[in-house]
Amino acid sequence: MLGHSHATSGAFAWSVAAATLPISALTYPVLTTADVHLGPVDLLLGAFLTAGAALLPDADHPNGTISHVLGPVSHYLCRFISWISGGHRHATHSFAFVIAVGYGTWAGEHWLGRYFTLSLVFFLLALAVRALHICPSGDGVEAWGTVVILAAAGTFAMDHWITDKPVWLPFSVGLGALAHLAGDCLTDRGCRLFWPFPLRTCVPIIDRTGNKVETWVLSPLFTLGTLAVLWHVFTTSP
Ligand SMILES: [Zn+2]
C-alpha cells in the first residue's frame, strides 16, 4: 500500500475508535478513572498522530515513505532497522511490533516524560506531513526541510495543548501500526502477523501497491470518513 493510504486509514481507525470505544480501551495500558475523557483537541491531535503512526511498520523499507522523511538520518535508520528485522514485511509487520510500539510509547511517557512525548509528536507529525503530501516530493533537502519545518511548527502548537503523558497516545500509536498491518494484508504479499512464526496472512483484494483504487477511492473515502466521524463527535459532544 502507498503511504497516503496507510496514513488516511490510520486517521479513520482512530476517529472510529475514539467515537465508539470506552475510555478504558482508549487509555490502555494506563488505568484511568471514569472522570477522564477525551476532549475535541485530543481527538484532533490523535487523528494526525495516528496517521503518522500508521507509517511506522515501513521503517523496515529503505526506500519507503518513512525512509525519506528526515533525509539521510531516517534513511540510514531505516536501513539499519531493515537489516536487524530481517527485511521488508517481517518483524515490523507483526502483532509483536504493534504491542512493542504501544508499550514502548507508554514506557517512554512514563519514564522519560514530556521530552519523549514532544519528540514522538514531532516524529509522527513529520511522517503524517510526508505521507499526506503536504511537502515537495523526492528525497532532496527541499522535501525533508519542509517536513522538518512543518512538523516543528505543529509540535510547538501542540505543546500548548498536550499533557506531559497523554493517556491516549500509546493506544493511538498501536492502532496506527495495526491499521498499517490490516492494509498490507489486503495486498498479495501479505504480512507475517505472527512473526517469528513464518505463517503469512493475506487477503489479496488490492492487486499491487500504487494502483488507482487506493489513490482515487480508498484514500478519499478514509479522509471523508474521518471528517464525518470527527464532525459527528464535535457536534454531539456536550
Ligand atoms: Zn508495510
Overview of this protein structure:
By secondary structure, the protein is mainly α. 63% of the residues lie in helices and 0% in strands. The model has no long low-confidence stretch (mean pLDDT 88). The chain binds zinc ion (ZN). Residues 57-58, 93, 180, 184 line the site of zinc ion.
Quick structural summary:
The protein contains 10 helices and no strands. It has 238 residues and is mainly α.
The percent range for strand residues is under 5%
The low-confidence parts are: none
Mean pLDDT comes to: 88
Order of helices and strands: HHHHHHHHHH
Total discrete domains: 1
Q: Which ions, cofactors or small ligands are bound in this entry?
A: zinc ion
Ends distance: 38 Å
Describe this protein with a few key phrases.
238 residues, mainly alpha, 0% strand, binds zinc ion
Task: Tell me the layout of helices and strands.
Layout: H1 3-20, H2 23-26, H3 40-53, H4 65-68, H5 72-85, H6 95-112, H7 114-131, H8 141-159, H9 169-185, H10 212-236
